[in-house]
Design brief:
It contains 3 helices and 8 strands. It is an alpha+beta fold and 156 residues long. The chain has a single domain (2-153), classed as Nucleoside Triphosphate Pyrophosphohydrolase. Strands 1, 2, 3, 4, 5, 6, 7 and 8 form an 8-stranded mixed sheet that branches.
Length: 156
């Protein structure tokens, strides 16, 4: 399986892009991650998930951030996507895209109802270490693009 990063303006829409995940910042500059998995096998990930029928990428992001992070998306911006090429997929070679966004979020009371059972706030400098797949090249790109969007947006 291989992953390739694509910057805007390239933007595949559903059904070619089957996910929308966000690097979500609070007004205080913390990044929100969701935790799931059994004890000893827990992993931290961006908030987001699969695009449902009839949803735009932004609709998916807003819904998933609310469901998984108990957070309201105040503002968002598409920052790029990664293409996944899976030549060994059981049904034959498979290619799809995963959209990535920067988002400013407002945290709501924690009331988990889906697969994410903990919400973690991490400082940007701790993001790559905290993220379960933080050593992947796309993680550093997402962080850099998220920080750039956050700086352009400004505080509050």
């Amino acid at each position: 399986m291989t992953f390739s990063w694509f910057e805007p303006p390239f933007r595949p829409e559903p059904p070619h892009s089957n996910q929308a995940y966000g690097i979500c910042f609070t007004a205080a500059g913390m990044i929100v991650l969701g935790a799931s998995g059994a004890p000893g096998q827990r992993h931290l990930n961006l908030l987001g998930g699969g695009v449902e029928r009839g949803e735009t990428l932004e609709d998916c992001l807003v819904r998933e951030v609310m469901e998984e992070g108990c957070a309201r998306v105040v503002e968002n911006r598409y920052i790029g996507c990664q293409r996944v090429d899976d030549p060994g997929h059981p049904t034959g070679p498979w290619r799809y895209y995963q959209a990535r966004f920067w988002a400013r979020v407002e945290l709501l009371p924690w009331d988990p109802q889906y697969e994410i059972d903990q919400r973690h706030l991490v400082r940007p400098e701790d993001f790559l270490h905290a993220l379960s797949w933080g050593s992947a090249p796309s993680a550093a790109i997402i962080l850099a693009e998220g920080l750039k969007a956050e700086a352009e947006r400004g505080p509050g």
